[in-house]
Batch of 2 targets.
Target 1
Amino acid sequence: MSMKRSHASGHPFNPETLALGYGYDPLLSEGSVKPPVFLTSTFQFESAEEGKRFFELAYGLRQADEGETSGLIYSRLNNPNLQIFEERMAAWDEADTGATFASGMAAIATTLLAMLRPGDVLLRTSPVYGGTYYLCEHILPSFGIKVHEVPAGSKAPEAMRALAAEVGWEHIRGIYVETPSNPDIVHTDIAAMKALALEIAASNGAEVPLMVDNTFLGPLFQRPVAHGADLVLYSATKFIGGHSDLIAGVVTGRKAMMLKVLEMRTILGTMTTPFNGWLLQRSLETLSVRMRRQAKSARKLAELLKAHPKVLQVTYPGMTDEGDEQHAIWERQCTGTGSLISFEVEGGEAAAFRVLNHFEIARLAVSLGGTESLVEHPMTMTHSDMPQAYLERLGVRPGLIRMSVGLEHLSDLERDLEQALSFA
Ligand SMILES: Cc1ncc(COP(=O)(O)O)c(C=O)c1O
């Protein structure tokens, strides 16, 4: 029998517990305690009638009877390794269901294509990850979808309200928020964005889904569904995969919207492979331990950076002053600090490059959330697609470095950071 979502007494299990057993029945796989890798493109039906039933449900040709579920058909539609991971992710996010993708960008693009149609307007915060920016700036407009943005942060909900009034509420069909934002780690209030989405939806009589990219803090330290998000998107390449050895994405959310996302995934074929699904499910088992330990080290490094004479500014969740608006949002919607730090060194790009070139432990590489520490230069690397003036307006300046803190010994990381900074 597979593990239930709660104890027999009704007491719900925590996501850490569910990550070790939920959604998998060993007795269906020769008693194997760990799920095997289901490396198959297709699944055999017991009878033609069963095949017909499975397709009817998978293609929405009829409603499921009480307790009836769709069976396994074909690995573009469903596969046990993806399903186990999806059920555990949905439990973690307190969402109805999940969908795994070949990359974070596949998750984002498939979701936006599922939600939007030509003539629709999407409102979003900025900055966002470079790939998301490119999709919104260059690809969606070529399909007749208009995308407008406001700066992320404490003022984003009221700025978005003003923007909505300016562009007209009638065509708005979605709000997209990356919080905290990449690379400057700025928080946007999810509940306030949801209030705006509901108002717009009530006025134009259409769904206005609130989509939240939760890559930086989730699912451990931020659960957007609890604050009103309809769809929660991740680059699972980062903390969820956690070992910098795969590219993947995942979306969780409300059932009705997820059905549209799954329909689009089935037809575009943007799902991940069984083996990556297996790796993700395996990584989820240690997610809580990894993220908590990484966050603990990151907090110490952020404090070191804050006190350093060559560092002009440090952004780290929860390290804002009490009473600060960013602090208030963080306190309301986050339960931890995460392990990403943005800091600006004195001396612009040249100084930032000297620092980056002298790390001995932290690797000079893009990406984040892996077991090893990584450092990069957003302006010339992950965000180099965006015009420099645009980035500077958003606070992404030439001296800015993004650091993802890994699982190395803290004292080694402290020494590494100190010696690299001495070259600034
Ligand atoms: C916040 C955020 N969202 C989405 C993505 C895209 O994910 P992937 O590289 O897995 O496609 C990234 C990648 O860095 C990211 O940082």
Target 2
Amino acid sequence: MKTVIIGGGIIGGAVAWRLAREGAEVTILERGQCGAEASWAAAGMIAPQAEAQGPGPFFDLCLKGRERFDAIAPGLRRDSGIDFEHGAGGILYVAFNAEEQAELQERADWQRRSGGTVVELSGKQAQELEPEVAPEVIYALHMPRDRSVDNREVTRAYIAAAKAHGAQVREQTRVEAIVADGGRAVAVKLATGERLAADVFVNAAGAWAGQIAGLEEDRVTTYPVRGQMLCFEVNRDGARPNIFSLHGYLVARRDGRLLAGSTMEEAGYDKRLTLAGIERISRGALKMMPHLGAIPFREAWAGLRPATADFLPVLGRSPSLPNVIYATGHFRSGILLSAITGEIIADLVYDRAPAIDLTAFAAERFAARTAIRALGLVRDILFRSRIDAVAQTLGVRVAYASNLEQARARCFEETPAMVFADLSDPNFPPAATVGELKRVCRDARLVGFASHIDLKALKAARDAGFDLTLSRSEFTARIPEFLR
Ligand SMILES: Cc1cc2nc3c(=O)[nH]c(=O)nc-3n(C[C@H](O)[C@H](O)[C@H](O)COP(=O)(O)OP(=O)(O)OC[C@H]3O[C@@H](n4cnc5c(N)ncnc54)[C@H](O)[C@@H]3O)c2cc1C
């Protein structure tokens, strides 16, 4: 089976290794250098429990992804000859106040019900497990099966292992378009004008996957979500847990590097660092481990997570050209999902039924859009993905806007039954928000939320005519009720 893979990141590499091992004739086409984009910038956590925002098909995929990664790790090491630090210290998810504790307790509850392994710890027990963690920690979850790897080395390993099984890799080779004939893809057209024929094509172009011409009918769009990272030099034993919190995370590498992450920003394809991003990550890192203030800074970088409108990956055939297969949109979890993506795509290439139900990840969901239930005026991308996890289990769609101009346009296009707004965000001043929305979607219910201490914003929203105002944690708890 002659297969062309567009994109030489961790996903393209994992698919290539899997297919080449099964005897396929594989060529990876990489625009720049393999493994130099999101897969290079990541923190490398194989951490479904720390990452997932709620139960449902995505959490199930992530748990399975961790299991499959653990299963393939020895073979990948053998085939590539590369050691990628498959750490075993687990993740310690810490809380600093009662609100954060309540959020983590809720996480522990649904994760236990959905097959996750999680141990609840008092602040003192958390400090015993990791003595460097801040004394202000009052509660924590230990997720012993979550782990981390050196993502740059894993990506290199997938590509090297694929090559060892005969895969060809062409770098500095940009694919412009898929060329179709009679309802099937027949070739890719390169930026040089050259055409390359194959039986199957895999679109693993990360945040750029939606830009490959010839697939417009599918309406699959991908966009970049920038994540900045800081790196320090410490002498910390890699077998200890990585630290996660609602303020960021810390991941240790065996050679003494300590990675602190990250931001979630819509900044287009711009990989530059910002002072605000650096400040936010530093503040989170110091909150989790105060002694970091005295350790040497080493370097910083940023990368572009590949996101889709609903923050779920796209794993499946193109509805318009069935011999094109999507393997993209892995957003915050591409390292974790690399092994299982390789297996799923190989199953599809060889017409086998994948072990996982792919309905939630099918490309068809973009073409056949359901009417939206709600419009969220929310810029916090992590919070958006949390809302989407609930929307996904309920089978409804939520759209988002980052400013009032976008909100107006969305209301015209999609007439939501409800609009909810993050009132702590200066982009959504209560009076202007009500004024704008009442003009374009008169019948929508307006719900505003803000931190429970932000009484000023909540009062202003009530005065401006919001139908309901409540604290952020109350809103979070009632999301299923609002979306139903
Ligand atoms: C700061 C940060 C932290 C993260 N932490 C984690 C983590 O801890 N755990 C986790 O699981 N995930 C994490 N992620 C997410 C993870 O990095 C991504 O989900 C994953 O790397 C996506 O892999 P990919 O191969 O799809 O994309 P990429 O690595 O971006 O690869 C896509 C490749 O396609 C190439 N390409 C694009 N267009 C074309 C074209 N037209 N022709 C040819 N080639 C093309 C690009 O050059 C690129 O090399 C993090 C991401 C960031 C930015």
